[in-house]
């Protein structure tokens, strides 16, 4: 009788668990919320893709300034409300807290936390990785592509069995001396025919510039102050590049390689000139495609 009661209790509990289990399980078990990942894949325009994980970076390896990409608000230092951060505003990057960035306005009137994805920090770190890779290649002896100089051909080998030919002068008959001019006949000097100048290239007419013309056009553009980012004396190499289509417009392009002082120190940078109708339409960074001011 005792064992029968025990068996009955077990059966009742099994039945209740079978019927009520799906209902009460969510109340008893709380699922773990997924952790907020700081890893983002960044594809540089016309370049490689980098995986950037902010958790792997020390504070000293982060940029000192970032640009706002999504509007946000941070509290003012006086505690009297918040200050809006608009797109393209630059802010100081002070530190990190959990998965957020601690930023301060450039005028020092507001400070607070903001999501990393609301800034361009991932793009800056990806560009730094690319610059480091490029610097490593240059340090290892790899240069920017140059036009190769053709190797000289083998020197002609004289055949010792062949007789040495006689000088050509020995076969040339000496001409008879010209007769003295008759003083009674007036001498008429021929009218010189002017040589027409070579036609200058007409870029506006649709013709493409040569590689040398592209290089000279880039040098003139920089000398005229088209960009403030770098000067002509900073450029280590000028060269023409391939045609490209940007925003539906076809451009001839040229590259200028120079060393620039960035937030991460002195780094090699390539600037690209977009050329249309014989003029430099604008300068952009070769990898990111962002316009250079």
Describe the protein:
The protein is α+β, with helices and mostly antiparallel strands and 293 residues long. Among the domains are: 87 residues, no CATH class; 82 residues. The protein is built from three helices and 13 strands. The strands form four sheets. Strands 9, 10, 11, 12 and 13 form a five-stranded antiparallel beta sheet that branches. It starts with a helix and ends in an 8-residue tail after the last strand. About 11% of the residues have low confidence.
Topology:
Blueprint: H1 2-28, E1 39-43, E2 49-53, E3 65-67, E4 72-75, E5 82-85, E6 90-97, E7 100-105, E8 111-114, H2 121-139, H3 211-223, E9 235-240, E10 244-246, E11 249-262, E12 265-276, E13 279-285
List keywords for this structure.
alpha+beta; 13 strands; elongated; 293 residues; 28% strand
Please give a quick description of this structure.
Helix content is about 20%, strand content about 30%. The longest helix is centred in the first third of the chain and has 27 residues, at about 1-30. It is built from 3 helices and 13 strands.
Q: Into which percentage range does the β-strand content fall? A: 25-35%
- Helices and strands, in order, run as HEEEEEEEEHHEEEEE
Structural class, please? alpha+beta
Anisotropy-based shape: elongated
Number of strands: 13
Main pleated-sheet profile = 5 strands, antiparallel
Whole-number radius of gyration? 38 Å
């Amino acid at each position: 009788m005792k064992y029968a009661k025990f068996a009955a209790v077990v059966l009742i509990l099994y039945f209740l668990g079978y019927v009520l289990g799906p209902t009460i399980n969510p109340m008893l078990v709380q699922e773990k919320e997924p952790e907020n990942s700081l890893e983002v894949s960044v594809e540089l325009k016309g370049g490689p893709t980098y995986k950037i994980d902010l958790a792997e970076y020390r504070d000293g390896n982060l940029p000192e300034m970032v640009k706002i990409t999504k509007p946000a608000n941070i509290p003012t230092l006086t505690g009297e409300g918040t200050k809006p951060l608009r797109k393209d505003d630059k802010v100081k990057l002070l530190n990190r807290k959990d998965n957020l960035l601690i930023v301060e306005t450039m005028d020092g009137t507001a400070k607070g936390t903001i999501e990393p994805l609301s800034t361009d920090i991932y793009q800056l770190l990806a560009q730094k990785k690319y610059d480091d890779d490029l610097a490593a290649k240059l340090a290892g002896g790899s240069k920017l592509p140059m036009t190769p100089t053709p190797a000289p051909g083998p020197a002609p080998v004289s055949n010792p069995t062949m007789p040495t030919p006689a000088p050509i002068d020995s076969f040339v008959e000496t001409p008879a001396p010209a007769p003295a001019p008759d003083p009674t006949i007036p001498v008429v000097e021929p009218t010189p025919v002017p040589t027409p100048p070579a036609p200058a290239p007409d870029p506006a007419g649709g013709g493409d510039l040569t590689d040398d013309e592209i290089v000279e056009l880039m040098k003139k553009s920089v000398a005229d102050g088209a960009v403030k980012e770098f000067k002509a004396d900073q450029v280590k190499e000028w060269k023409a590049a391939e045609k490209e289509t940007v925003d539906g417009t076809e451009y001839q392009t040229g590259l200028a390689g120079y060393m620039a002082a960035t937030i991460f120190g002195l780094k090699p940078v390539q600037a690209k000139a977009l050329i249309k109708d014989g003029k430099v339409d604008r300068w952009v960074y070769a990898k990111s495609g962002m316009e250079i001011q």
